Amino acid sequence: MTLAIFFGCTFIAFGPALGLFLFTIARDPLRIIIFIAGAFFWLVSLLLSSLIWFIAIKASDPRDEPLQKGLLIFGVMFSVLLQEAFRFLYYKLLRKAIEGLVALSEDGCSPISIQQMAYVAGVGFGFMSGAFSMINLLADALGPGTVGIHGDSQLYFLTSAFMTMVLIFLHTFWGILFFHGCEHRRWWEITAVIVMHLAVSGSTFCNPLYMGSLVPSYLLMATAATWAYLLSGGSAQNLQRFLLCKSCSVMGTGDPAGSSGYLDQCWGGKRVSQGLE
Amino acid sequence: MVNHEQRTECWSWHKHLKRKDPFCAEISDFQRTAPMTELSAHLPQFQHGQLTENFPDNHLSNTNDNSERRRHDNSERRRNDNAESETNGQPQNNMQQVVEQDEEDEELTLKYGAKHVIMLFVPVTLCMVVVVATIKSVSFYTRKDGQLIYTPFTEETETVGQRALNSILNAAIMISVIIVMTILLVVLYKYRCYKVIHGWLIISSLLLLFFFSFIYLGEVFKTYNVAMDYITVALMIWNFGVVGMICIHWKGPLRLQQAYLIMISALMALVFIKYLPEWTAWLILAVISVYDLVAVLCPKGPLRMLVETAQERNETLFPALIYSSTMIWLVNMAEEDPEAQRKTSKNSTYDKQAPANQTQNEGAEADDGGFSQEWQQQRDNRIGPIESTPESRAAVQALPSNSQTSEDPEERGVKLGLGDFIFYSVLVGKASATASGDWNTTLACFVAILIGLCLTLLLLAIFKKALPALPISITFGLVFYFATDNLVQPFMDQLAFHQFYI
């Protein structure tokens, strides 16, 4: 196709993620490590789920088209469940890591809070998920060809890019929601995340009927975004002040652990984040 | 091998003040000596009847400087962190103080651990990016133009069994060459043939910097159809090579030296990717990581012997190619060993060919920089006989504090042997060259290697023992390569075909 398509799709799919990475993750080494470890966990979950799918495929008749499609759908659902399971495992690992960091810190506070870890882990999952979906497409987009020449949709690349972007965002928010649910033992939050993930993946079964997959996904993303924002301590007033650029009344900028722009204080051994208002 | 232990150990040394301060300098000595094992004669390779040569790559890093710096850092740390640090000069501090400082050090280790991990992530990533970019664009490095003389058996056979047998034989030959080279190195060192080793190193890096980069430049021009005259090329290569030699073997800006080391590792990795047939390459990677594990953790490895010899003689080995991430500032150091510092820049060049092992060994020794087991051993050996003497304590306390306070303790550096760079890049490069999954496989291997490196550093911080940097990363990389290529790729293909998203 063309360079324009390549760059356009790359930035649609990965632009926001890159922005998130550069501005919130890249400066703190600990966050980068958590990011990469998150990507790694997602990768392992993908590996296991594709192993299961592969075994199922090999055990079945390759000429039976509906069966193959059914197995693929099963593979997708199983993969979603496995991803969430690995997100839980990652949560457990990060909990242990926080305990270690707290034990070794000077002031009894971990340099990074579980909420920040949740966010970074979510971005890690999302980025890897998006990369695996999109990178081969982008590489093909550089080469010659015509999209949809055999009667398929001509918007293949564009919709893939948009879907990837929404998935990356969703993984980020799901990370926050999931970890919050695990922290506070709210199982319904965890269930909601799993159901949302299944819904988003399920909606892609409508492709190439893109209205059926992109629109619900974006709506779900908006919901998840609001929910995650509220869970992270945001509120309508915060948003208003941010949008109207009201000056901060709380002194200090930035927190010792990184560049989140939040004033972190350590009260009673617990790191408390105060959003700059 | 990765090294930042050195720093911690330096701290503990200072704390206990049981050893002479110069011990820290000796750490660098070890680093310098470590690479000795990397020396390997370069062997000619026949390619279509034409004799070409593989070049050893040896580099010395400013490990010496690093250790000096670390000494500074350590002493500064002591002073800054503990008001009672000055009293450490007194013999037999109370244990409590020591224990506190132990904990402090541990915490500091972990606190700075993340930063060190990133300091290694960046160069490893850059090297891999260079290799993958070259593989994807310059077809020369994926074209089959013969094999190294060390892998004489061809892989284009009729049956799978034959191919497997040939690749096993190839890998066996390569590994034995490497082992022989390492032993040769040890022997050379034992018999004090320093000039031979020095000369070897310099010739190796000369060949690498000039010849290999000339070939690389030529191929890049061919790929992009750039017309170029010989005079311009001569000028470019001359400048590149000379500045490289100066930066690597003597002094130069830190970033430039790091860039050269990365470029050299990438060049070497490309040579390996080009000249090693597929199955042989994977087998060699696997065997190399096993060898690395054995060489570093077994008491009878040639690497260990080398380091022990260096210890007995109380001298420094030639540092191998080590990537170092900090700048060494020699600030008013009470130079116990000025000689040692001069020598820092002498890099041992090692032959790439036999290099696998040697690189490994070297890597093991070199970037041990502190992590190496040799280092541990040395320390253990030293701890016994060495007592803190009034002179050493005086020397330590004489270290000017004002010159240290400006140093940022966070600038402590890490080292990683170039052999590790090379083999990581070989893995990722081979993955991008020959995988059906293409970019997915490359990305998976990349993440796997980074995680392996992270785990290695974590284990290092926990066990405070020298650990090889290859095994975990290469194992993860290999597992993910084969799994992604054979399992994940068909799955992702089907998903992309139907445009399903997981």
UniProtKB/TrEMBL annotation, chain A:
What keywords were assigned to this record?
Membrane, Notch signaling pathway, Transmembrane, Transmembrane helix
**An annotated GO BP:** protein processing
Q: List the Pfam families hit by this protein, alphabetically.
A: Aph-1
List locations, semicolon-separated: Membrane
Topology class, membrane:
Multi-pass membrane protein
Q: Name one GO cellular component term.
A: gamma-secretase complex
Residue stretches spanning the membrane: 6-25, 32-56, 71-90, 117-135, 155-178, 190-211, 217-236
Keyword Cell membrane belongs to the record: no
Family to which this protein belongs: Belongs to the APH-1 family.
Q: What does this protein do?
A: Potential subunit of the gamma-secretase complex, an endoprotease complex that catalyzes the intramembrane cleavage of integral proteins such as Notch receptors.
Q: How does it assemble?
A: Component of the gamma-secretase complex.
Q: What is this protein called?
A: Gamma-secretase subunit APH-1
UniProtKB/TrEMBL annotation, chain B:
Q: Does the keyword Cell membrane apply?
A: yes
Keywords annotated in UniProt: Apoptosis, Cell adhesion, Cell membrane, Cell projection, Endoplasmic reticulum, Golgi apparatus, Hydrolase, Membrane, Notch signaling pathway, Phosphoprotein, Protease, Synapse, Transmembrane, Transmembrane helix
Membrane-spanning segments = 117-135, 168-189, 196-218, 230-248, 260-276, 282-298, 443-463, 469-488
Q: Give the first-level EC class, as a single word.
A: hydrolase
Q: Where is the composition biased (Basic and acidic residues)?
A: 66-82
A GO-annotated cellular component: axon
Gene3D superfamilies linked? Presenilin
What is known about its subunit structure? Homodimer.
Family statement: Belongs to the peptidase A22A family.
Q: What is known of its domains?
A: The PAL motif is required for normal active site conformation.
Function in brief: Probable subunit of the gamma-secretase complex, an endoprotease complex that catalyzes the intramembrane cleavage of integral membrane proteins such as Notch receptors.
- The entry's protein name is Presenilin
Which organism is the protein's source?
A: Grus japonensis
